[in-house]
Amino acid sequence: MLELLPAPPADPLWDLAAEYGADPRTDRLDLVLGVYRDHNGVTPVMRAVREAEIRLAEVSASKEYRGLSGNPAFNGAMLELVLGGAVPAGRAVAVQTVAGTGALRLLADLVRQTRPGATVWISDPAYVNHRPILQAAGLAVRAYRWTDHQELLADLRGAGRDDVVLLQGCCHNPTGADPTREVWEALADMAARTGWVPFLDLAYHGLGDGLDEDLWAARTLAERLPEVLVAVSCSKNFGLYADRTGCAIVLGSSAPALRHVETALQNAARTLYSMPPEHGAAVVATVLQDAELRGLWRAELDGMRDRIAANRAALVAELEALGLGGWAEPLARQRGMFAGLPLSPEQMTVLRRDHAVYGTATGRVNIAGLPVDKAGRLAAALAAVLEPAGV
Q1: Which of 35, 139, 265, 380 is deepest in the core (most CB within 10 A)?
Q2: Whole-structure pTM value
């Protein structure tokens, strides 16, 4: 049997991470994986998270199964955090998932059950795992252009009434380019008029312009539309990468419209992983339900956002000093952990091979992983790659 298994394609991000790990150059820069790192290059455990873990350890609660929907306190806290009172409580259902990836897959399964002929539209460029998750759920996928917002709106005029449009709520991965509020309003108008359902991926809220600012689009769509799907990750803004903590939220027109949704999500979870892990959800619930810990978490999140913004500003300044101000100007407008560099896969290979700077083949680099004192080195490497192209 195993001899008949064809060679599957390797995951491009983890392939690059392995190549970075094997690179003997001491000055190499790892800007591949989407993790936040401090000025020492370490992904820290947030103080609010550590304190919550201490409190949970002192209680030493049972490790008994929580159930298919996960931790109820976590689910309630996530509804309050994401929606902020934008809709009545009866209009939304939340189920804990195995990180944001699990939320995307459960919601994709829900789309397949409720709209079996639907096409799910994703951005071009898109997060590397969006298309595989949707196709694994048996859904048809089509792309809309992302970086030019007039092209985005033009493409989505082709979305049909039974279609679903996957949108990143803030800090777009891989480009860092977000729509203006006016574009979000236009998208809400289009969805209301046409009938397609927004499917929001929230993985970076709090790391762009601020927590409430980054959730503005999600809350606006929730207020204005009868149905919205939301996949939420706690990996980045709580630093719970390895604890795989996330949430699937479904908004309906009314409580009766949602009567079968939780069971449908539970059934999908049962066949995939049965139930999600408890630890990260208990940590998040503890933080969000305690005023002191919640305030500490918000302050730490603000500090992370400020560091990312400072890294971006430092890179832009270094590029401008090298005479690449026009090339740097779009980077200055981007938000969140990532910068989308307008480089070809071949140029990204040169960047890695000749300058020990590791980013993805699509031109994505992790600004949150850049030591601020290395901004000049990154800018010089970019300038060297761009020079043969005559930029």
Answers
A1: 265
A2: 0.94
